Amino acid sequence: MSAPTIDTGRDHHLEQSLSSAVQFQERWWAVHAKCKGKTHLFFAPAGERPEARARREDLARKYCAVCPVQVPCRDEARVNHEAGLWGGENEEQRAAAGYAPRAITRRAVQVAVSVGSRQATAS
Ligand code: SF4
Question: How many domains does the chain have?
Answer without folding.
Answer: 1
